[in-house]
From TrEMBL:
Protein name listed in UniProt: Histidine kinase/HSP90-like ATPase domain-containing protein
Keywords per UniProt: Kinase, Serine/threonine-protein kinase, Transferase
Entry's Gene Ontology molecular function annotations: protein serine/threonine kinase activity
Protein origin, superkingdom: Bacteria
Histidine kinase/HSP90-like ATPase domain ranges (all copies): 18-124
InterPro entries: Anti-sigma-factor_SerPK (IPR050267), HATPase_C_sf (IPR036890), HATPase_dom (IPR003594)
CDD domains: HATPase_RsbW-like
SUPFAM superfamilies assigned to the protein according to its UniProt record, in alphabetical order: ATPase domain of HSP90 chaperone/DNA topoisomerase II/histidine kinase
Length: 139
């Protein structure tokens, strides 16, 4: 987590089981609402769902979700203790798996994987304003 860009931070311990993904989504939605960034809820909760699902399926516990903001940007991180690093692959038309990182890639402004000595974190960044929207207008 890039602490110097985070004015506020929220952390959630993800439990196993079918309720974990919904609980992580609700946690993210509440944090965004508290921070005045509710307009990011749909995108961020989708990204969180995909990353938590991947950690539950392929990682090892404990699994943590950390979100932070500087007021205009949200940075999220899902960490687990599994050794396998996720890789963005093209989805096979007949495969029902493998689309999670495609969605993360589509909805995050940036994302990546950081290996840890005993696991990894998958992080994402989502800006409240579209990246090109901050171009000054003539006049």
């Amino acid at each position: 987590m890039v602490a110097e860009t985070c004015a506020r931070e929220a952390r959630f311990e993800v439990s196993g089981g079918p309720e974990a993904i919904g609980a992580a989504r609700r946690f993210a939605g509440r944090a965004l609402a508290r921070w005045g960034l509710a307009e990011l809820t749909d995108d961020v909760t989708l990204i969180v769902s995909e990353l938590v699902t991947n950690s539950l399926a392929y990682g090892k516990g404990p699994i943590t979700l950390t979100l932070c903001t500087d007021g205009r940007t949200v940075r999220g991180e899902v960490g687990d203790h599994g050794p396998a690093l996720p890789t963005l692959l093209p989805a096979d038309l007949f495969n029902e798996h493998g689309r999670g990182l495609i969605l993360v890639n589509a909805y995050a402004d940036d994302w990546g994987v950081e290996p840890w000595p005993h696991g990894k974190s998958v992080w994402f960044v989502r800006h409240a304003e579209p990246v090109g929207a901050l171009v000054p207008q003539p006049g």
